[in-house]
Amino acid sequence: MKTARKNKKDRPRGRQADAADLAAIQSYLDADQGRRDRLIEYLHRIQDDRGYLDSGLLTALAETLRLSTGEVYEVASFYHHFDIVKAGDSPPPPLTVRVCDSISCQLAGAEALITELKTALGEGLRIQPVPCVGRCECAPVAVVGTKPVTNATTASVRDAIARGERTDSPPATARDYAAYKKSGGYTALKSLVESGDAAAREAVIESLEAANLRGLGGAGFPVGRKWRIVRDYPAPRLMAVNIDEGEPGTFKDRHYLEHDPHRFLEGMLIAAQVVGIATIYIYLRDEYAGIRALLQRELKALRDAPPCRLPEIELRRGAGAYICGEESAMIESIEGKRGLPRLRPPYIAERGLFGRPTLEHNTESLYWVPELLEKGAAWFTSQGRRGRQGLRSFSVSGRVRHPGVYLAPAGISVRELIDEHCGGMPEGHRFKGYFPGGASGGILPARLGDLPLDFDTLNDYGCFIGSAAIIVFSDQDSVRDLALNAMRFFAHESCGQCTPCRVGTTKAAQLMSENTWDQPLLEELCQVMADASICGLGQAAPNPLRCAMKYFPEEFN
Length: 557
Known about the structure:
Elements: H1 19-25, H2 39-50, E1 53-54, H3 55-65, H4 69-78, E2 84-85, E3 95-100, H5 103-107, H6 110-120, E4 125-130, E5 142-144, E6 147-149, H7 154-162, H8 177-182, H9 187-195, H10 198-211, H11 223-231, E7 237-243, H12 252-259, H13 261-275, E8 277-284, H14 289-304, E9 312-317, H15 327-334, E10 358-362, H16 363-367, H17 369-375, H18 377-381, E11 391-398, E12 404-409, H19 414-421, E13 431-435, E14 444-445, E15 469-474, H20 479-493, H21 499-512, H22 519-532, H23 536-540, H24 542-551
Parallel strand pairs: 1-2, 3-4, 7-8, 7-10, 8-9, 11-15
Antiparallel strand pairs: 3-5, 5-6, 11-12, 13-14, 13-15
């Protein structure tokens, strides 16, 4: 095998890290040691400390981790929240104000807000339009540093800057470890561990199967069956918890974590006990800085006084990439790589994190486990409408009087959801249509507002429920504009790995920006994206476009 060619001083070719950068990089590592899989964590530490990624430090980091400089650069440049500054270039301003311009915020006037902020705030900071930040119920949203400003106006953003508010804090609404234990928390986990009985672990899976609990992150795979599949693969088995929650219109995981994080953590630990998990990785989107501080605090409390022997738990931080909500892309990110979806098979249940069998779940799926074990499957299945069983958590935003997270029977319709939970439509607005599953779930008209909102029921209409992110719009809104917003989002967030998605979403957004849509060409483009894209992003990207043309033809006459 050929070795690397060296120069006259017997050093490898290419830029070498200088001694000062090599010394400086040590402070960003773990106990003076670096792990390849924690590359993104180290990049965050540099970005947080300096406000950008200095190219000299990136070279030093590559040398310390024994990676090529190109590999470190390709990871750093993949994620939206990293700013690479090359030697001689000017760093970004010390403060960035990110303003969400996704669907719910667009409906609430984000475009005008961005324009006003760029004029009003002047020099010394950066106004950056960004995709959904997961606070759609209080749109429009600006984020000053990591501090969200909800229902934002130019005045409220200016005031937050003047007060020096730069960092989000743990939510005061959260029930802490002591309060959770006092109310009986972790009883189910301790009983399971103390029994040490395979029959008790089997009974947990049987309860989940009897309740027909399905994954609530979007795919809807049966939870009990997933546990069985992973449990049957050889140890060591790992677990990845997906709290990326980047689908526009989705904020239910944040809601539950802000109120009762230990209910989720207990469900996570029960799953680990039943399946036999050695290490748990919690992958949290970077936009949830307050939740990150909360979980760091509560995980420390849990470790300091554990209810039982705990598996190793690592809290990992995303870096602004919607694609990492796809399970295999998330796993690539946890391994310290670009979030590129993997080709399947093999599925991650067989070969996931670090090549090991991996159990993957979102927050809400695990959040239900303790309550289901306490109240029983019959309690859960007794809920529902129109022949459906169970409960669903709906993130509702857009043109309703009271947006928020609502727990409602599976099979409820959007019209019932609006009237019974959201206080109806705002004055002067008439219900025109809705996104039933975020940007990727398609668009349906008001005349289909009585369809049951549940798994598998919307497929015949070119839509799906997904993460149950309901975005309502009215007769004062343009479906063309909303569909274009969704397509621009997909184009921005495509990982670029496959041509149908990378080129298709960009080309579709360009065609949709024209005054007259070339509908036959757009339909052909949709078919290619749906048939040939590697993962769900490209496959689902055509949904809002196709629905706009199918259900709202009056906007194209």
